[in-house]
Amino acid sequence: xxxxxxxxxxxxxxxxxxxxxxxxxxxxxxxxxxxxxxxxxxxxxxxxxxxxxxxxxxxxxxxxxxxxxxxxxxxxxxxxxxxxxxxxxxxxxxxxxxxxxxxxxxxxxxxxxxxxxxxxxxxxxxxxxxxxxxxxxxxxxxxxxxxxxxxxxxxxxxxxxxxxxxxxxxxxxxxxxxxxxxxxxxxxxxxxxx
Length: 194
Hints:
Oligomer: single chain
Shape: globular
Strand content: 15-25%
Order of helices and strands: HHEHEEHEE
Distance between the termini: 16 Å
Number of helices: 4
């Protein structure tokens, strides 16, 4: 596990590299957008579209790196956990329909508000949902995702659970799931990390 100082240094390095990559990528994307409107033969067009697609993918990776590296002040407030779940699932509804992923919302009514950063909660939930979708579709070509919330009055907490019918996390991978940038995915698959 990285210490706080090493993680901060890693964040600064990532931020510097990402900013340096942004300049040539911006030039490639701007030039590509201008060229996209010009006539060209079909073979050249296919190659051009490949270049443009890969440049856009690289730009997305750079944006994700910058989000990871950015020191963001948390903005905590009293939030409705169920509303965060509904908003997050709405972001993925179209992709889930295309991928044959069924979503079951088992959200308890009357939950008290929770003091949390809604943006961080949504990001964590979004990562869990996307990783679950990818695992289920890779394993079965479809899947069922269950998101459940409830209150445990004895511990005075609200709980949120995400279950899927994918293959699960293997024993050798489990100790590393919280390591920054650790992934089981091959280059070009899924998200930049997670």
